[in-house]
């Protein structure tokens, strides 16, 4: 029969949705009379198809997680660079302030 798929993105932003639709009657592929070897071959073929589908899904998932990790690492890198630069600037400012404080001559 007919099927409809409805998607709504209420959270905003981009979302990726993946799904797989298998169409057909699994029993229609089977001949009326099959030998034990033929049935075993068909079961193996189905198992191999499932493994291929699972590997494709895992590749996509791994790529998504890798992209997330790389993005996070880049943000951490820039945060560390900004933090190190601010520490250097603060140290330089404190040194200048302390030098001025101790080298000023006092007028009596």
List the main descriptive attributes of the protein structure presented here.
mainly alpha
Count every beta strand, where a strand is a DSSP E run of 2 or more residues.
0
For this entry, what is the oligomeric state of its chains?
Answer: single chain
Query: Percent of residues in beta strands?
Result: under 5%
Give me the strand/helix succession: H
Helix content: 55-70%
| Largest β-sheet summary | none
Please provide a written account of the structure.
It is a single chain. This protein starts with 35 loop residues before the first helix and ends in a 5-residue tail after the last helix. The model has no long low-confidence stretch (mean pLDDT 87). Helix content is 63%, strand content 0%. It is rod-shaped and about 115 Å long. The chain has 108 residues and is mainly alpha-helical. It contains one helix and no strands.
Summarize the structure.
With 108 residues, the chain is mainly α. It has one helix at 36-103. The protein has 1 helix and no strands.
Q: Helices, strands, pairings?
A:
Layout: H1 36-103
């Amino acid at each position: 029969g007919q099927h409809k798929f409805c998607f709504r993105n209420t959270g905003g932003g981009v979302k990726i949705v993946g799904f797989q639709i298998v169409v057909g009657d699994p029993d229609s592929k089977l001949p009326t009379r099959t030998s034990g070897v033929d049935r075993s071959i068909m079961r193996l073929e189905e198992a191999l198809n499932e493994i291929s589908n699972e590997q494709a899904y895992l590749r996509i998932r791994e790529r998504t997680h890798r992209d997330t990790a790389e993005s996070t690492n880049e943000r951490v890198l820039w945060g560390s660079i900004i933090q190190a630069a601010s520490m250097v600037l603060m140290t330089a400012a404190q040194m200048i302030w302390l030098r001025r404080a101790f080298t000023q001559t006092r007028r009596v």
